[in-house]
Amino acid sequence: MAAMRIEKTIGAVDIGSFRIAAMIAGLTADGELVVLGSGHRAAEGIRRGYVTDMDAATHAIRDAIERAERAADTQVDSVWIGCGNAGLMSEIREIDLEVGGRRIDQDDIEYLMSDAREQIIPPAGAPRVVLHAQPAHYILDGAHGVGNPRGLHAERLAVAVHVMEAETGPLRNLMEAVQNAHLNVEGVVGAGIATGHACLSEEERELGVAMVDFGAEVTHVSVHVGGILVGMAVLPYGSGDITDAIASAFGVRRTQAERLKCVYGSAIASPTDHRERIPLVSGSEAGAQSAETILRADLVAVINSQLARWTQDVAATLKSLGFVTGRGGNGRQIVLTGGGGELAGLADYMQQSLAKPVRTGAAPKMSGLPEAHATPGFASLSGLILYAAADPLDIRTSAGGWQTASRFARMTMPARLMRAIREYF
């Protein structure tokens, strides 16, 4: 069998608060995406999505990418990175243009995009920086959902642009930690966008869906409608807070509490929980505590008390984003992902609490993807690769042509004639 011909190599690093994971993939001549290697390690120097120790974060990033490079038997010089916090803010902005009832041509669209870029991109030195500025759809005289306005007549033409911003300082810290690991930053992808590429189908994103990325220290809540992300919020609460509650309730170390949660924990109570006793610590750990046991019902009760608060915050956040839960609400389906989403029974618990269909989302099958990295906890890592391969339209990177565009309506007849001669002859 002939070896695959890799046309382009893509590197990605997902910098989480619990783990830092890296992946290297290749695009073949046939357009197939193949995972060449991946690796992960425990996170250091990261707290709730912010860099708190530059040296520790840099070391962890370098270690993760070296593991992926060894598995792929190749090296990368630049990577795409995910931004999980850094004061993320997401909104839809509308930029309009007076057309005057005439037919819309390509110059009108280019001029509108150029105007949108000037209004959306903040000046150098601003406290916030734009991560994404993706056009969603056009609006003709207040009518939304127009895919291509060229050739149509309207008084006013507008474009709805999804804009995601981050705080400049925390984002620079994140990028510097990667650069100190001898890597160039190819691009930064905001939370919700990467996981959306990994876990959501095109039909789901078009019809409307909410995504809840339950991480270790933060939860990303996002809403996708019309094929794009239209709203996103970050909650400073993650599955690690459940681990802390277990450690406090039973007087064990955090590592022991994490084991209890992952091995015996569940979001749904069972009739047998009151009869089942589980060891506080594993048999391999020495000490007098090794023989001590607790009822599984007590563990589930601690987990449920934390989840009750979490689901209330998620429901309130979804409502603020226009996605109303409960029977009769306008929200459709909810997709649960992230490392915390692997807790047994959590999707069913959310479905009961929010009264909406909930499914667990993970990355799609890709050639060469290890089974261990095909779980919800690594969805954002695969999403970074998929986003980089898709290379979606962004008005910042496509601004070159728009900057030189001019509207025919603002040009004299001789100027329009000369432009037509240059373009067509």
TrEMBL record:
InterPro entries: ATPase_NBD (IPR043129), Cell_div_FtsA (IPR020823), FtsA/MreB (IPR050696), SHS2_FtsA (IPR003494). GO terms for biological process: FtsZ-dependent cytokinesis. GO terms for cellular component: cell division site; cytoplasmic side of plasma membrane. It is a peripheral membrane protein. Residues 10-199 form the SHS2 domain. It comes from the Bacteria. The keyword Cell cycle applies. Self-interacts. Interacts with FtsZ. This is Cell division protein FtsA.
